Amino acid sequence: MITYLENERQFQLDTPHASYVLTVAEEGYLLHTYWGKRIAPQDLTDLLRLSDPPFVPAKNERERASFLDCAPFDFPCAGIGDYREPAIVLEDGAFACDLRYVSHRIYNGKYAPRCLPHTWGNGCETLEILMRDEPTGLEVKLHYTVFEGIDAVIRSVSLENCGSRDLMLRRVLSASVDLDDDRFEMITLYGSWARERQAERLPIRHGKQRIDSTRGESSHQYSPFFALVRPETTEESGEAYGFTLIYSGNFTAQAELTQFCQTRAQIGIEAGSFAHCLSTESEFDAPEAVLVYSEDGLGGMSRTFHRLFTDHLIRSKYRYAERPVLINNWEATYFDFDLEKLKTIADEASRLGIELFVLDDGWFGRRDSDNCSLGDWVPDQRKLPGGLKPLTDHITGKGMRFGLWFEPEMISPDSDLFRAHPDYAVGIEGRPRTQSRAQYVLNYARRDVRDAVWAQMKEILDTVPVSYIKWDMNRQLTEVPSPAFYHPYMLGVYQMLERLVTEYPDILLESCSGGGARFDPGMLYYSPQIWASDDTDAKERLRIQYGASLFMPPSAVGSHVSVCPNHATGRITPFETRANVAMFGTFGYELNVAQLSDDEKAQIPAQIARWHSISRLIREGSLYRLGNPFAPTGFAAQQNADYDAWIFVSADQSDAVFTYVQITAEANMKSRRIRLAGLLPDAVYAYELGGKAYQKTGAYLMQCGVMLANLWGDMTSVQLRLRTL
Ligand code: GLA
Question: Are β-strands 716-724 and 684-689 bridged in parallel, bridged antiparallel, or unpaired?
Fold first, then answer.
């Protein structure tokens, strides 16, 4: 609900448990007034600290600069005396911008940033505030949307040059919030290839703490997410403010603790790698930012992100639908396969009940290694005589569906496409291009380049029955001609993805970027699932998936059972645990099933049946994290034990699935009691543990817990299904 108090010129956006309040000051500055636990609409202008002493910059020009440097802005400008980080930087020969309120409107529905992924759906209301920089004629619309029942504010920014001169945009962030407080810790996710989304939690300090990407993708190294939490905030209690960006390119996310102990929190496109010439009468949209408030700890924050993204961001028809259990041949064969080998895997997979066969890298051109052929999307007749058809016939003949890997944004120097069109690759005239994984990036800002790839993909999609695509992106951008390139590149990628999901709406799309370098909300708009990491080791996955679930729905976490010793770590973990961990995501297999032991093979049909019986809980249920795989290294100081646990609970709380993983076994540790969460206290839940049937109230399970016997060995696990009687 959005309220406007006319006398105070105060806007209030209310969600079930939170309020977000803005005030238009006398001179037209838009000031951030309050964001936190819900409060009844009332005069909050005292919080702006403008009246003590009474201070109106227009009447005290001498002190205007000090006003600008401490007033709590909701979209701060550069160049006029606010020395904190601005949200907008404009260059028009001069270097200043001074946005003042012009008008506003409140309406049902929301603004959709053009050509960008965005939230959508009914049951939402928007506050639009029009601001203007008089000297340049730049008009900026700030959009604030709230969806019914969801404790989030969705912000976006659109600009129009209504002046007579071209303007150079040097920075346009999507959200900036000045919190009148310094008692925060900042949670961010850092990582690397195969080690994505490691959670870190540190007190904020004076100055700026920032994560960002300038790599042309949201990146393995940092995720476009951060949270500001209280020192006492835990998984299920305390305040948490979460921020993310619905964008897959360069981003910046930062907190700045100022001289007056206020915290400026911001998220948007990274400014150093951004430039946009806004010619007269033209417009520009910045991506949507999502701001979540929770008084129920990190868990409450994550569940809000999950609900919002599942109900109002993912568009695929698979968002609420059962997804097929897949087998992917990458870790099974890498580039070394032929038709017969694939058939052997498919035969065994179909016998065990696996429903979708995904052919990964290596099927096109002459790709025996990662040294060549990207851009030549023509089946390799040496490996697949007669093309893909004999294989797809075989697979569909077995009643399985067929999926295919593409890396559509890339070009190998050793490819027919590059030989014919060297200019298709991103580069700078007169400077050698840097190779990475022996490949270059295609210039997706160019329509003809996109069309050339699209024509090849379409040829395949119209010839063989492809019901799943893995869209990969395996290198970061270099030798980009100018900072004005990155955003159009990203828009080009989004245009291709849009084309794909519009023309082939039945295809289940899984995006990927060298594992999880584009594991971001922008991608969710196109692909309901995203490969989370090339690291399939169950132990490492606990951390990667915990980190991912802080802001992304578990239904999106591409997660597979692979062989041991694991290819990324050499670790050996029980087959059963690998499955239990992969069930915190999309669930599939990535190994040569034909080479498994009889015992492992025998477990697969039961795992698939179990998965189908719980997958709705993973897709639509509420996640409560009950353990913390970072605990021994101190991410959550309140806990030392080396285990992880989580529970997914259905919307009506009558059904739940609980998983416990003992990471490291400890001698003489008799048993461990894990208190559950999210259940109905008075309902009686039935479950089976260690061959014994139990019936316990939700209150018992949440206050006393389930008792897990000392499990034997590292990485052993238990999964329980709990249903009300
Ligand atoms: C990336 C992906 C892998 C696999 C390979 C193929 O690394 O993340 O899953 O598809 O590319 O080259």
Answer: antiparallel
Closest Cα to residue 287, out of 528, 426, 101, 490?
490
**Identified catalytic residue from 133, 414, 534, 644:** 534
Cα of 508 from ligand 1 centre, angstroms: 18
Which residues 6+ apart lie within 8 Å of 581 measured at CB? Answer: 538, 541, 542, 545, 559, 659, 661, 717
Closest CA to 645 of 623, 669, 661, 664: 661
Beta-bridge partners for 129: 104, 142
> Can you state the angle between helices 389-397 and 339-352, rounded to 10 degrees?
20
Beta-carbon neighbour count of residue 602 at 10 Å? 11
Best mutation site among 326, 369, 474, 535 for ligand 1 pocket (most ligand atoms within 8 Å of CB): 474
Distance CA 126, CA 9 (A): 17
Grade residue 487 by pLDDT with cuts at 50, 70 and 90: very high
Q: Whole-prediction pTM value?
A: 0.97
Closest to 715 measured CA to CA, from 538, 527, 596, 570:
538
Dihedral-angle region of residue 541 (phi above 0 means left; psi in -120 to 50 means alpha; beta otherwise): alpha
Between CA 407 and CA 287 the distance in angstroms is: 24
Which of helix, strand or coil describes residue 431?
Answer: coil
Rounded to the nearest 5°, which phi and psi values hold at 232? -90, 0
Q: What is the pLDDT of residues 417-437, one digit of tens each?
A: 999 999 999 999 999 999 999
Show Cβ contacts of residue 336 under 8 Å, excluding neighbours closer than 6 positions: 362, 368
Of 556, 467, 460, which Cα lies nearest the Cα of 506?
467
Which of the four pLDDT bands, split at 50, 70 and 90, describes residue 639? Answer: low
Of the residues 328, 329, 330, which should be mutated to test ligand 1's pocket, given the most ligand atoms within 8 Å of the CB? 330
> Nearest to residue 606, comparing CAs of 583, 627, 637?
583
Which superfamily does CATH assign the domain made up of 2-312 to? alpha-galactosidase from lactobacil brevis (2.70.98.60)
534 is catalytic: yes
Å from CA of 419 to ligand 1 middle: 24
Give yes or no: 642 in active site: no
What is the residue with the minimal CA distance to atom 11 of ligand 1? Answer: 514
Find the 362 Cα to ligand 1 centroid distance in Å. Answer: 10
The DSSP call for residue 516 is B
Q: What's the one-letter identity of residue 423?
A: D
Whole-number Å distance between alpha carbons of 210 and 416: 42
For 62, phi then psi, to 5°, come to -50, -35
Choosing from 74, 285, 296, 472, which is the catalytic residue?
472
Task: State the chain's mean pLDDT as an integer.
Answer: 96
- The CATH number for 625-724, chosen from 2.60.40.1180, 3.20.20.10, 2.10.109.10, 1.25.10.10, is 2.60.40.1180
Distance, in Å, from the CA atom of 117 to the CA atom of 495, rounded to the nearest integer, reads 10
From 39-43, 91-95, 205-209, 246-250, the region with the lowest mean pLDDT: 91-95
Ligand 1 closest atom vs CA 512: 8
| Those residues with Cβ within 8 angstroms of residue 388's Cβ, 6 or more apart along the chain or in another chain | 359, 363, 379, 404, 460, 463, 464
What are the residue boundaries of the structural domains of the chain, listed by start?
2-312, 625-724
- 655 CA from centroid of ligand 1 (Å): 36
Pocket, ligand 1, Cβ cutoff 6 A: 330, 360-361, 405, 472, 474, 512, 514-515, 531, 534
